User: Which sequence fits this backbone?
């Protein structure tokens, strides 16, 4: 598949006129990152942003003592590292490939020139950033105001809603990485999963598969209206 056709399937650029897709294709650079490879580090110059064509990437921050907090897990079709495109500043976090990953890198200067001629691209980008800000605000709220069971229930509800209310959820990340997203440690996460399983809220046999058995109980946990025994 050529680059212009790849770009046409990415939500950020759907509906873009063919000539602008060709302009984007002309500046886009194909990149490949092995699993565990750093895509960019916090403080690196923000010379452009990436769009994932295959694979997954985690975006995270680290504390002075080395503790990692995952901010986002990005997958196929999603852009990341786009904030410096507008600010002209450095990357505010780290990005690392969770699996072998292919991206299209869009250089900042070329993208800014495209926005000047086609403002609708900027509106699409702002829409993506707004949704991400909403998710990030929810993450901060969860970490600061909710206990870990409520955070986990809210995250499982989010995954289910993303898959149109599916009861069966396949985690795209390890439980260690999930613990990082939830601001806890793997041992605590395992205990909570076991308690939720014991109380019939979920089934969690396979390492990366969870089935929601009691949606009402999950909703109550997510809203902190119910506590685990």
Assistant:
């Amino acid at each position: 598949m050529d680059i212009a056709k790849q770009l046409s399937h990415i939500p950020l650029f759907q509906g873009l006129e063919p000539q602008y897709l060709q302009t984007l294709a002309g500046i886009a650079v194909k990149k490949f990152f092995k699993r565990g490879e750093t895509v960019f580090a916090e403080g690196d110059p923000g010379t452009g942003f990436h769009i994932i064509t295959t694979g997954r990437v985690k975006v995270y921050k680290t504390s002075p003592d080395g503790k990692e907090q995952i901010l986002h897990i990005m997958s196929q079709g999603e852009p990341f590292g786009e904030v410096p495109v507008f600010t002209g500043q450095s990357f505010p976090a780290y990005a690392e490939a969770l699996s072998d990953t292919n991206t299209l890198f869009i250089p900042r200067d070329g993208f800014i020139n495209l926005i000047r001629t086609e403002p609708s691209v900027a509106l699409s980008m702002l829409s993506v950033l707004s949704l991400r800000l909403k998710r990030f605000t929810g993450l901060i709220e969860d970490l600061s105001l909710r206990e870990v069971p409520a955070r986990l229930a809210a995250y499982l509800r989010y995954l289910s809603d993303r898959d149109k209310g599916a009861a069966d959820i396949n985690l795209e990340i390890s439980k260690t990485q999930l613990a990082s997203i939830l601001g806890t440690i793997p041992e605590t996460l395992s205990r909570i999963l076991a308690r939720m399983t014991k109380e019939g809220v979920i089934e969690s046999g396979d390492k990366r598969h969870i089935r929601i058995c009691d949606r009402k109980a999950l909703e109550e946990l997510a809203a902190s209206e119910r506590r685990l025994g």
